[in-house]
Specification:
Blueprint: E1 5-11, H1 25-31, H2 34-39, E2 44-50, H3 68-87, E3 91-96, H4 102-116, E4 119-125, H5 146-150, H6 156-159, E5 173-178, H7 183-192, E6 195-198, H8 199-205, H9 207-214, E7 222-229, H10 251-264, E8 267-273, H11 284-296
Parallel strand pairs: 1-2, 1-3, 3-8, 4-5, 4-7, 5-6, 7-8
This protein binds manganese (II) ion.
């Protein structure tokens, strides 16, 4: 990746989450110097500031969805902002915000790929499969549903945001780090044929092998999107998230994951979501996220041929 042009887009909301605080994520990432640190690696960075959407009314679910109208509004804003950056030839980094925003972001990337004749590969780094529906969800929190919505399973006003239903095919996704899936969701993930490298797979086969498979068959015409839910990481190193699940990737495993993605040279867009500064310790999770993003943009310990 030669000196990419990066645009930071803040989406300060926790509208799809079960805990408040992810709305402070964009500012915590800025305080952790995401912009200057990327610039130190030769990246051209423009910070577009924050999108401005509806407040969080903190209401119970209606028909199995919490805050659906507000989630739709935020995702429309994200969709347009991400699509506009891609159309300018820039690499958008969405600073979330909770993971419901992956719907707006990835539907925009899929639309851009349709318009430019590119193939799309989505790497979903997460403790959770985020493949719930309003019937399967125990909570109604829409941050557990974006992958299902992208694959066409969800409320019309959400799944139609990208202009084509489904926005993406399950075959385009690779999920990595998964270790918490609700019972009904488990069956649905299996039915849909999602390719999942869960923690058991990573324990048995190693991060290297998982990433080799997840990145296999990329070619020069592939747009690679990374949707990085910070709860992907083990909570020992990343406590600042709303839904911690023990047994995640270690610091070294996460670095290797990011470095192998960087080595492909195909990264075209990124979401950084679910960082919750209200639960963090002195911004250490934000700093860790920025450290990993540095690796995603090519930081390495030594020169490698
Ligand atoms: Mn997630």
């Amino acid at each position: 990746m030669q000196h990419p042009l990066v645009s930071l887009i803040g989406a300060p909301t926790d509208i799809g989450a079960g805990a408040r605080g992810a709305s402070m994520g964009p500012e915590a990432l800025r305080v952790a110097n995401i912009g200057p640190i990327l610039e130190s690696h030769g990246v051209d960075v423009v910070d577009r500031g924050n999108l401005s959407g509806p407040a969080n009314p903190w209401q119970p679910p209606v028909n199995g969805y919490r805050h659906l109208p507000e989630v739709v509004a935020w995702n429309r804003l994200v969709h347009e902002a991400v699509h506009a950056e891609l159309a300018l030839g820039r690499l958008p980094i969405l600073l979330g915000g909770d993971h419901c925003l992956g719907l707006g972001s990835i539907s925009a990337v899929a639309r851009h790929c349709r318009e430019t004749g590119k193939k799309l590969r989505v790497l979903w780094l997460d403790a959770h499969a985020d493949f719930n529906t309003n019937e399967l969800t125990p909570s109604g929190n829409i941050h557990g549903m974006p992958v299902a919505c992208l694959c066409g399973h969800g409320p019309r006003e959400l799944i139609e945001i990208g202009g084509q239903v489904p926005a993406i095919h399950p075959r385009w996704i690779r999920q990595i780090g998964i270790r918490s899936v609700d019972p009904g969701e488990k069956r649905f993930v299996h039915q849909a044929g999602l390719e999942v490298f869960d923690m058991r797979y990573i324990d048995e086969m190693g991060m290297r092998h998982a990433m080799e498979l997840a990145l296999a068959t990329l070619d020069a015409n592939t747009h690679l999107h990374v949707s990085f839910d910070v709860d992907f990481l083990d909570p020992d190193i990343a406590p600042g998230v709303g839904t911690t699940v023990p047994g995640g990737p270690t610091y070294r495993e996460a670095q290797l994951c990011m470095e192998m993605i960087a080595d492909t040279g195909r990264l075209g867009s990124l979401d950084v979501v679910e960082l919750n500064p209200a639960l963090d310790l002195r911004n250490k999770t934000a700093e860790l996220a920025v450290d990993l993003i540095e690796s995603l943009f090519g930081k390495s310990t030594l020169m490698r041929a």
